[in-house]
Amino acid sequence: MCGIVGYVGTKDAYPLIIKGLQLLEYRGYDSAGIATYNGKLRVFKKKGKVKDLINLVKESSVPEGTIGIGHTRWATHGLPNDINAHPHLSGDGKLVLIHNGIIENYNVLKEALKKEGHEFISETDTEVLVHLIEETQKRTGLPIEEAVRVALTKVVGAYAIIVMDTDEPDKLVAARKGSPLVLGIGEDEFFIASDPTPIIEHTQKVVFLNDEEIAVVQRSGDFQIKDIDNRIQTPFIQELDMKIAELGKGDFDYYMQKEIYEQPKTIEDCMRGRVNAHEGWVMLSGIKEFSERISKAKRFIVAACGTSWHAGLIGEYLIEELARIPVEVEYASELRYRNPIINSDDVVIALSQSGETADTLAALGLAKEKGALIYGVVNAVGSSIARMTDAGSYIHAGPEIGVASTKAFTGQVTLLTIMAMCLGYERGTIPRSYYLQLIEELANIPSKVARVLENSKKIEYIAGEIKEATNALYLGRGYNFPVALEGALKLKEISYIHAEGYPAAEMKHGPIALIDENMPVIVIATNKSAYEKIVSNIQEVKARKGVVIAVVTEGDKIISDIADYTIEIPDTDEPLTPLLSVIPLQLLSYYIAVMRGCNVDQPRNLAKSVTVE
Ligand code: F6R
Question: Which one of 243, 495, 532, 579 has the minimum C-beta count within 10 Å?
Fold first, then answer.
């Protein structure tokens, strides 16, 4: 939600910031804005995407200066328009600020500031913040970094901010609480951004700011971090290992398409060093340190949102079947607000691609207070969730930029499969022969995913047949039920077709009423157990003239004869099926969205990293 970038150094700030904003655009694309200073402050802001901002700038002269800040917005307070776009200015026009997050007490602050004579032109909470800093500076005469710190003590809510003071044009001040912020340290230059992607082209040396920390970076090369109580902090400088090539689209039309096609590799990367089919073992170093506590846990609770929550449901099936540990899967947003029973002998697993989802972070905070062990399954290295957990495993999927999650989902499922197998082995709940069989089959999954991807022409054809639908139903049983949910979510979010996922057997308890000749019903029918039941479900749909698209195991004749369209996937062991059966559903949504002219990578109203509640 909102991407922010800042630069101070010796190079032209404008192109650096624009490029940074383009890389962060996945975080929000309602409006974009930039401010630079070169003896004169220049501010440009525009409703729409970064390209609209670039066009606006083209109408005048490109702003000069070696210091600047930029923002790409996902609107919370106030419509997406030019006025509400960031940066926002103080009343005297000397301070400029960009913000990601929500200031919850902005109304109280705004009323108090109005009494002091402040006037506001936007509907945003952010403008209140810059006026608050101005007022603090006016009253105390403090340098900007101190005025920011003192002002923030009055703020309730979440923020990642960068502030530029035209009276001190060699420094930027940044602060965070609840929203991510990274500092990049170059040679006589500093970068600040919501995530490392705008930074890594210039330096791999970064500091991830912690909550309630304020950083001041100076053109001289000095920087300092303090906490909100004015204590100097020792920065933890890390060397990242990210490549700029990972951030491009390559030969693909969309990031989502590229990320779907990367899955044979990303699943392999997730298994590297963790799955050895030759020697017959799986291991997860994350669980080693706490192995006693984890394998003896009374219960696992998975906390996640959206697609990660769907991966969590598959994790429930895997861990309960293979390791016989009870698992509950919770929407993080519900878990945090319902006074749940969480005990110190529970393990709470946080699943998150971004590692920044506000609800998941808050749910973890709660679980931590209750003494549970927190385990993170995260993609974004150094993210807030990754840093908050007691133990964890990265899925190593690389940057996921398409807003609709694909490779992170299969990475999470792969990781949970490995975890379930490790625990099952340790607890003696999985027969050795089955353990070895699953290891061998897991190692085959990347090449089987590649085979599914080779089938894309047929999937594209089917997409063309159903692209005009207004509703769709996704059905699956067992391991394929969460896949049905995920298929429906993918279709909804990028093609704006209403879709529902259901356990196949639930269809007759309500959704069957919706079925007619206009309703595509996508059935994930690869199950070996309950195969006859799923065949009956398909018959029930056909009897009501529904259009059946069935995902089946290669060579399936029975369902192929009944369904209108079939998509074959290679045979595999049932617990591993989701890693294959989800791929055609990702492709189906992708092609439908492209055919409907939708912006696949930046669907309306969505943002990649949901850092607000
Ligand atoms: C859907 C999607 C979202 C995310 C959800 C959680 O395609 O991407 O539903 O899965 O916002 O995000 P993370 O995994 O970053 O916590």
Answer: 532
Beta 67-73 vs 157-165: how paired, if at all? Answer: unpaired
Domain boundaries, the chain: 3-243, 255-450, 455-604
Q: 98 pairs with which residues across the strands?
A: 162
- 225: tokens are 């971090």
Report the share of the chain in percent with pLDDT over 70.
99
Indicate the CATH number for domain 455-604.
3.40.50.10490
CA of 309 to the centre of ligand 1 (A): 8
Residues noted as catalytic: 2, 608
Residue to mutate, 260, 353, 403, 590, ligand 1, most ligand atoms under 8 Å from C-beta: 353
**Is the distance from CB of 92 to CB of 38 less than 8 angstroms?**
no
The closest residue, in CA terms, to atom 8 on ligand 1 is: 405
Domain 3-243 - what CATH class? alpha beta
Task: Of 65, 1, 78, give the one whose Cα is nearest residue 34.
Answer: 65
Question: Which residues lie with the beta carbon below 6 Å from any ligand 1 atom?
Answer: 305-308, 352-354, 357, 360, 404-405, 489, 493, 610
Asked if domains 3-243 and 255-450 share a fold, the reply is: no
Radius of gyration of the chain from Cα atoms? 25
**205-235 per-position pLDDT tens digit:** 999 999 999 999 999 999 999 999 999 999 9
For 224, other C-beta atoms within 10 Å of its C-beta total 13
Q: Is the peptide bond before 87 cis (omega within 30 degrees of 0)?
A: yes
Beta carbons of 28 and 74 less than 8 angstroms apart: yes
CATH top-level class for 255-450? alpha beta
Q: Could you tell me the pLDDT band of residue 367, with boundaries at 50, 70 and 90?
A: very high
DSSP 549: E
CA of 405 to the centre of ligand 1 (A): 6
Can you tell me the distance from the alpha carbon of 6 to that of 278, in angstroms, rounded to the nearest whole number?
A: 49
Per-residue pLDDT of 485-535, as tens digits, reads 999 999 999 999 999 999 998 988 988 888 889 999 999 999 888 899 999
Q: How many Cβ atoms are within 10 Å of 301's Cβ, its own excluded?
A: 24
